[in-house]
Amino acid sequence: MIPDILEPHTSSAASGGVDGAATGGAPSQRLHLHILGSGSKGNCALVEGPEGLIMIDDGFSRRETISRMHELDLDEGRVRALILTHEHSDHVSGVSVWCRRFEGALFASRGTADARHYLACLPFEEFMPGDTLHIAGICVTTFPTSHDVVNPVGFRFSVGDAREGDAIGYATDTGILTPGAMRALAGARILALESNHDVPMLRTGSYPRYLQDRILSERGHLSNAQAAEAVRELVTERTEELIAMHISQENNRPSLAVRALAEALGATLDNELGSSATLERPDGPTLHIRSAGQNRPISIW
């Protein structure tokens, strides 16, 4: 695997905690998103803030997780907390082994840990979708997503105040985006949004009809077209990075996802392959559009 790093890595001392209030911070603070893998064979990402790393899910072996972190020059000792989106195995299969050598905080929405016997024995702190957590200097706003699991959630990670602070929006494994999800994701500087499948590819592919219907349902996954429709509202002049997430290896192509998002926003493809796109703004920051993959870890700065 070849990591893709947009800027040099920097680090800071870390400490963690939980609080019901939003965290304050200097306007100069910026968050970074490191995606170790995104897809049906394993998911894990890390948000880097002023006091360390927050891990989102862990669907890889401990060795693979650490290997991918090291490819991005990340220190596993700086992980302060692990938070789950939901209990499907491609998101949690590595959690129990990871926790054997991990003393940080564990967070999951109510009922999520109990849905897997190997999670139920771990000391998760439960929250309800809509709750706000304060973890490692980052304000984590949670919101419900729509998937065929107990209590799925997405996140908005932020530092600083609403006007000048930095934010990352993160939502995968959801058949729809509710009004609450749209409010939470709007205007983030980095937006990581599911763009799972191309509907014609799915309908003409090898998946049985019942599985196709599940994926297309309101408790399934967002299609390229759904993601494209959503970003017209979610992407603002503050958005600098748009990442297509959880792309199906069977029913989609990264280029199709990038093209759909680019067309929705009037961005220009960077190459004939359609691997990335750019929207130059005369009065604001440039918007970059790209995809996350199953096997290639990337850092978004």
Secondary structure layout plus pairing:
Elements: E1 4-5, E2 32-37, E3 44-49, E4 52-56, H1 62-71, E5 79-83, H2 89-92, H3 95-98, E6 105-109, H4 117-120, E7 125-127, E8 132-135, E9 138-144, E10 153-159, E11 166-171, H5 179-185, E12 190-194, H6 199-203, H7 209-216, H8 224-234, E13 241-245, H9 254-265, E14 268-269, E15 276-279, E16 287-291, E17 298-300
Parallel strand pairs: 1-17, 4-5, 5-6, 6-7, 11-12, 12-13, 13-16
Antiparallel strand pairs: 2-3, 2-17, 3-4, 8-9, 9-10, 10-11, 14-15, 15-16
Helix pairs in contact: 8-9
Shape verdict:
globular
Q: Can you list the strand order of the major beta sheet?
A: 8-9-10-11-12-13-16-15-14
Number of helical elements:
9
Radius of gyration: 18 Å
Parts with pLDDT < 50 across at least 5 consecutive residues: 1-27
Pattern of helices and strands: EEEEHEHHEHEEEEEHEHHHEHEEEE
**DSSP, total strands:** 17
Mean pLDDT: 91
Give a short synopsis of this structure.
The protein has 301 residues and is an alpha/beta fold.
Provide a descriptive summary of the structure in words.
- This protein has helices at residues 62-71, 89-92, 95-98, 117-120, 179-185, 199-203, 209-216, 224-234, 254-265; strands at residues 4-5, 32-37, 44-49, 52-56, 79-83, 105-109, 125-127, 132-135, 138-144, 153-159, 166-171, 190-194, 241-245, 268-269, 276-279, 287-291, 298-300.
- The longest helix is centred in the C-terminal third of the chain and has 12 residues, at 254-265.
- The protein is globular.
- β2 (32-37) and β3 form a beta hairpin.
- By secondary structure, it is of the alpha/beta class.
- Residues 1-27 have low confidence and may be disordered.
- The protein has nine helices and 17 strands.
- The strands form two sheets. It has a nine-stranded mixed β-sheet.
